[in-house]
Amino acid sequence: MNKSVLVVLLSLVVYGWNYWGTSIYTLDEAKNAGSAVEMMRRGDPFVPTFNNDYHDKPALQYLFMVISYKVFGINPFSARFFSVIFGVLLVLSVFQFVKKIINETTAWYTSLILISSLQLAVQFRMAVPDPFLLFFLTFGLLSFYVGYTEKKSSFLYYFYACLGFGFVAKGPIAFALPGIVILLFLILKKDFSIKTILSLHIFTGALLTLVIGLPWYVGVGLVTNWDWLTYFFITHNLERYTSTFEGHGGFLFDGVIIVFAALLPVSIFLPQTLREAWRSRKEQPFILFSISACLGVIGFFFFSKTVLPSYVEPCVPFAAILLASFVYKCKEAAFAQTKKLWINGIVFCVIGIAMPVAAVIALQIDPELKDLYLRGLFFVVVPIGAFIAFYYLKKDQVENAFYTYITTFITLLILISSFVLPQVDGKNPVVRSVKMVKEYNRPMAYYKRINSAYVFQLGTSIKRLDNEDELNAFVEENGKVLIISAEEEWNQLKRSDFTVTFKAKDLFESPVSLVAVN
Questions:
Q1: How many domains does the chain have?
Q2: Phi (first) and psi of residue 155, to 5 degrees
Q3: Residue 279 lies in a domain
């Protein structure tokens, strides 16, 4: 079978396996999916809102979600559909570029590393903007490399077009990261000059970027009297970078740890991979470009006060290229023997043993999930695969060990998508209570704080009450009502006229969601 077709089919199976099997529950998914619903119902292509308040992400993901909603209806399948598609497109585009620049075997290895990544598989199964940004940044940077090295203007314009689409996907980060990567690459290659910059068609390219990326921002600015732009660029870009936002603080070298975890199990070869990559950077400019991508992205977020795993993902495809190039070199037995990769195999055996233990403990710690703790035993496939791969590494059969690692993690992804995540999701308080909320059929509001998934799953905006006076006015106006809140805030009221009919802790979070009626 043609390897391009195989890459598409395999990535579609892994990313698409039961991706609709869990509800829209996490904060980001609920707000993104809900914003698309509100924009669709208003017929508004400009202003992203969630529960009638501004939402902090640009338009591109909503456009695709609206298309999907109109075809498949409003549900998790639709909300995540194009995330899966863009994940498949990312893997395919990386395969095609690496095949063109290096060779087909390295391209195949790179694709397998990306497909088996737990972090990417989660990302491409969520209703978030990151799959769109990741695709356009990766495709754009790879296009730049071909355009720069082969003097092909068309590929340079692909790059500029991707910057524009990336800007509409997630904002100015679509300019910052490629700019840093390319600047670092040209400096390391000792080709940073005015002549080189002008050869990149920077002025006509910038015009193309603005033609694609600017109109929506102008539109939302005009419609909101520029309020949304201030809210987005200042609060949700500048302040996220310069201060800890929503509790997502970072720590020293967190980006390195995130990338290592994202590319497990093959990332256990990163020490030797980076050493070999640095040695070959002068003979292989594409290796230098991939190094620049990793250093540029991780370096940019090294100084960020807010860090999420998705932030450093733009360097993951390029780290995968470096790893795949190393594995390809290791096909030569003499080369592999000098690296003593069986030591790395021992390290992953330890990691593999720890994974099912950690999964069982994590499920037991959360009181809502403790009866599901045996589901963590599905992770036992990891140590099994680790020991088989170790056997191959001891015999210097690196390619067999590589395929064992890939098969192990793909198997794990399918198992947890089928038998762990849906069962865990069934325990979340929104899924457990939303049917009851609908059956009450009362005027509804929330007091101070609400799990955002209620808004999406109930399919309606929910009025916010900020103090007891507003609550009293709401009761006086409507009579029998239903209030959703968090236990900590609700208990401060001491309302004897209300009965709490449902209460459960949010999964992996501290708040306890409750429903109360009078």
A1: 3
A2: -70, -35
A3: no
